[in-house]
Structures are given as C-alpha cells and as structure tokens.
Amino acid sequence: MGRFILFRECLKSNLIPLIIEVKYRTKYIEGLEEYRETGRVGVLLGLFEEEQKKYLEKVAYFLCEDVR
Predict the structure, then answer these.
(1) Average pLDDT over residues 41-65
(2) 16 contacts 49 by C-beta, under 8 angstroms
(3) Rounded Cα gap, residues 55 and 22, in angstroms
(4) What is the 3 state secondary structure string of 5-65?
(5) Which single residue of 10, 29, 36, 42 could bond 17 by disulfide (Cβ 3.0 to 4.6 Å)?
(6) What is the percent of the chain where pLDDT is above 70?
C-alpha cells in the first residue's frame, strides 16, 4: 500500500513517478528502517532515483522518445 501512495504522491506533486518492483522490496524496507532509526534517506533516495529512471525508459518506449 505504501508504494501505491508513493506513486500517487509523485503524480500529485508533478514528480516523475516510480514503481518499486517486488524484487526490490527488501531494499525498500531497508531504506524505510534506515529512515526510522537514523533519519537518513540515502538508501531510499538511491532506490527512488533508479526506479524513476526505469519508469522513464518504459514511458519513452511507448512514446517513441529518447529520454537519455
């Protein structure tokens, strides 16, 4: 549910959305734990940036555009 809310909030804020795939669930949970325990967001930001790139590549394919 949290990943869905994250996607929705990106859309509402005019940010590039991201979809965290199930295979990255562990890294996502680690990032959430890191934030809860230390207040740092490094793991989450890294994961979000990578997932945004993947989302852009998928969208570009359907729009026949080069996003690089």
Answers:
(1) 89
(2) no
(3) 15
(4) HHHHHHHHCCCCCCCCCHHHHHHHHHHHHHHHHHCCCHHHHHHHHHHHHHHHHHHHHHHCC
(5) 10
(6) 94
